[in-house]
């Protein structure tokens, strides 16, 4: 069967899905977990300004996944992901058909429409999947060079292994939160360059990291090829890996970041499927040194996804502080997943892989405040002032989309407001 789900001419009977600039046209169909007042968590698919209730859709029989129908009654995506690629494709084809302007079954049934569709504005969004494990990488050439230059000088910016393996560390699944969750400024051990001993203090250099998160949908128990790894990824989310730079600077050698990255990692509530992103595949940049065979690309495995970060101070207006693109990455998520599995590490349904901060070549393309303000030397202009790092009350918003011919595959928003650190005595009580 030819795959028509990406065709630019495809329209939905839901008019808001066809409007210019809509994040969720019929070509997108991202999945999330939502609730409404008086009704519990369930899976939905975003279309225009509405959510189609997948649990209700399967209960009314208008969506039928056969032996996998039960997966749509779960409040998270893990069961659907575990059902495998055949079920993922079947669901996408079914939804594309159901929502198409050509298909009358739901289009012409006002009672059923009222039962299945909920305005996004009336929903609360939850974690779209249970995060099994969380791994974060360091795979943008520009980011690694910028940060390395600040920490070790430009001549030692890239560690000797950087061009040969996608460097990563094991993070904490427990710290991943959905967009909209407030983030408490962490307190941790810091030591300034002129201090003899460390002290416990609220982080004074709390930061964002603009990333894309890859969601593993197919489990594995053997070293994956890059091609296998690509096929095992279900979809992608926006990801903000909140980072305390002063805590990081003191703790990161020799085993990498630990508590500096443990406060929270925010993800967007909608998982955009790899299937929806298929027309936007692009190749990684030219290799500076050849990769070993198990990490070599076997086709275009990055995506052309425009990304931006906004900062909104308390009671102030929003300022876009960064614009970049996922195609700037040196390593794709498939290469990262292949490397992750290379020594035998089993991968699970719901594993989350952070791309690493995505920075581009120019100042405005930098994906963290550390880089944007160059360690605080060159603060960023925002509404009502400047920023070197995040101040209490600031809200940070990530956005992203792939631009098609007359439509866009949007990711929605990934936002979080930073709250003041709690008083040490208050937590001791
Ligand atoms: Ca990170």
CATH topology of the largest domain: Fumarylacetoacetate hydrolase, domain 2
Name the ligand types: calcium ion
Rg from alpha-carbon coordinates: 22 Å
Give the mean pLDDT.
Answer: 96
Fraction of residues in β-strands: 25-35%
CATH class of the largest domain: Alpha Beta
| Total number of domains | 2
Distance between the termini: 64 Å
Give the name of the CATH superfamily of the largest domain. Answer: Fumarylacetoacetase-like, C-terminal domain
CATH architecture of the largest domain, by name, is Alpha-Beta Complex
Report the uncertain regions: none
Outline: globular
Tally of DSSP helical segments = 12
The helix content, as a percent range, equals 10-25%
Helix/strand structural class:
alpha+beta
Major pleated sheet: 8 strands, mixed
Describe this structure in words.
It is a single chain. The chain has two domains: 15-126, SH3 type barrels, CATH 2.30.30; 134-419, Fumarylacetoacetate hydrolase, domain 2, CATH 3.90.850. The protein has 429 residues and is an alpha+beta fold. It is built from twelve helices and 26 strands. Helix content is 20%, strand content 28%. Calcium ion binds at residues 136, 209, 211, 241, 354, 356-357.
């Amino acid at each position: 069967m030819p795959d028509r789900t990406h065709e630019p001419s495809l329209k939905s009977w839901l008019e808001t899905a066809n409007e210019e600039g809509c994040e969720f046209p019929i070509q997108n169909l991202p999945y999330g977990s939502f609730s409404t007042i008086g009704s519990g968590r369930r899976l939905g698919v975003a279309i225009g300004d509405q959510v189609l209730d997948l649990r209700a859709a399967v209960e009314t029989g208008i969506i039928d996944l056969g032996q996998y129908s039960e997966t749509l009654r779960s409040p998270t995506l893990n069961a659907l992901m575990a059902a495998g690629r055949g079920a993922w494709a079947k669901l996408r084809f079914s939804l594309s058909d159901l929502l198409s302007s050509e298909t009358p079954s739901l289009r012409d049934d006002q009672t059923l429409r009222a039962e299945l569709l909920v305005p996004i504005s009336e929903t609360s969004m939850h974690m779209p999947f249970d995060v099994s494990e969380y791994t974060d990488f360091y795979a943008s050439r520009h980011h690694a060079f910028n940060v390395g230059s600040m920490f070790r000088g430009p001549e030692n910016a890239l560690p000797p292994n950087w061009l040969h393996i996608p460097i990563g560390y094991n993070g904490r699944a427990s710290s991943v939160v959905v967009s909209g969750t407030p983030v408490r400024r962490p307190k941790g051990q810091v030591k300034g360059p002129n201090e003899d001993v460390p002290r416990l203090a609220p982080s004074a250099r709390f930061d964002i990291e603009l990333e894309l998160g890859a969601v593993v949908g197919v489990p594995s128990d053997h070293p994956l090829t890059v091609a296998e790894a690509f096929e095992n990824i279900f979809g992608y989310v926006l990801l903000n890996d909140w980072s305390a730079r002063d805590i990081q600077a003191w703790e990161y050698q020799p085993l990498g970041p630990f508590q500096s990255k443990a406060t929270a990692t925010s993800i967007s509530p909608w998982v955009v499927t790899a299937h929806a992103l298929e027309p936007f595949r692009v190749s990684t940049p030219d290799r500076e040194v050849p990769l070993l065979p198990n990490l070599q690309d076997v086709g275009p495995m990055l995506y052309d996804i425009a990304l931006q970060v906004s900062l909104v101070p308390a009671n102030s207006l929003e300022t876009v502080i960064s614009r970049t693109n996922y195609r700037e990455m040196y390593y794709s998520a498939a290469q990262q997943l292949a490397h992750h599995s290379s020594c035998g590490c089993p991968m699970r349904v719901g594993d989350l892989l952070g791309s690493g901060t995505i920075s581009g070549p120019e100042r405005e393309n930098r994906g963290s405040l550390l880089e944007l303000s160059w360690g605080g030397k060159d603060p960023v202009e925002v509404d009502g002032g400047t920023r070197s790092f995040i101040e209490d009350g600031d809200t940070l918003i990530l956005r992203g989309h792939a631009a098609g011919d007359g439509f866009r595959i949007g990711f929605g928003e990934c936002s979080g407001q930073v709250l003041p650190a709690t008083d040490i005595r208050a937590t001791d009580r």
